[in-house]
Write a sequence for this structure.
């Protein structure tokens, strides 16, 4: 069974540019989450999809971030325009149930560097 | 709000050395506690968990005991191997569950040298 896949694995862009990150969850997982780890700090929740609906987007830092999950399969996270403080590792996770934290499956993350 | 504090790294140990990575937490009630591990080039994986006071989680030779009185969940391993080199994250979720409420620590990078 394929795991959670994220790409690109690395992205280097200049301030003001746009970047789109993609996450392919495990097949059949209705729940999809985005997390971010900035500058070696703690991993923080960004948002949660149930199928194609945003269940909770309280962790999104500002309106430069837009997440979508059309069709309830893969998800994209777009940053436009990117700022220096957006640099970090963006993790995606998926699960069948939204009830047990130990059922989360994480991708390997996208390392975003904004110069 | 909930928070997790873990020792800063990186931690460098020789093979077969004893490992302790400290983790303390602040939360209301009785949260569930976790250790996740991220090996190079891979995603986070659940290493072990404990869901109530005095529980001991264990996996792959790692152990951690849920200490309510000291609000701690320190990770230990008696004899580390080179393959244990990774970043370790302490985390908690409140009793009500829900992934959006998982709170992570800052991570501790462990390097084991032969």
């Amino acid at each position: 069974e394929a795991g959670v896949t994220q790409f690109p694995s690395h992205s280097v862009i200049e301030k003001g540019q746009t970047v789109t990150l993609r996450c392919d969850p495990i097949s059949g997982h209705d729940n999809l989450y985005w997390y971010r780890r900035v500058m070696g700090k703690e991993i923080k929740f960004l948002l949660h999809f149930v199928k194609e609906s945003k269940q909770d987007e309280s962790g999104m830092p500002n309106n430069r971030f837009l997440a979508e999950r059309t069709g309830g399969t893969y998800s994209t996270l777009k940053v436009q325009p990117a700022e220096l403080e957006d640099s970090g590792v963006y993790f995606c996770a998926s699960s069948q149930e939204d009830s047990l934290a130990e059922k989360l499956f994480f991708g390997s993350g996208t390392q975003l560097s904004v110069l | 709000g909930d928070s997790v504090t873990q020792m800063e790294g990186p931690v460098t140990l020789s093979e077969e050395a004893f490992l302790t990575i400290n983790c303390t937490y602040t939360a209301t009630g009785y949260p569930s506690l976790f250790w996740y591990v991220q090996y190079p080039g891979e995603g986070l994986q659940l290493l072990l968990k404990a869901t109530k006071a005095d529980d001991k989680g264990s996996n792959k030779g790692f152990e951690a005991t849920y200490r309510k009185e000291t609000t701690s969940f320190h990770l230990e391993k008696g004899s580390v191997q080179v393959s244990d080199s990774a970043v370790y994250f302490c985390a908690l979720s409140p009793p009500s569950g829900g992934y959006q409420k998982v709170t992570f620590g800052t991570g501790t990078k462990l390097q084991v040298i032969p």
Summary: The two ends of chain A are 37 Å apart (CA to CA). Chain A has no helices and eleven strands.
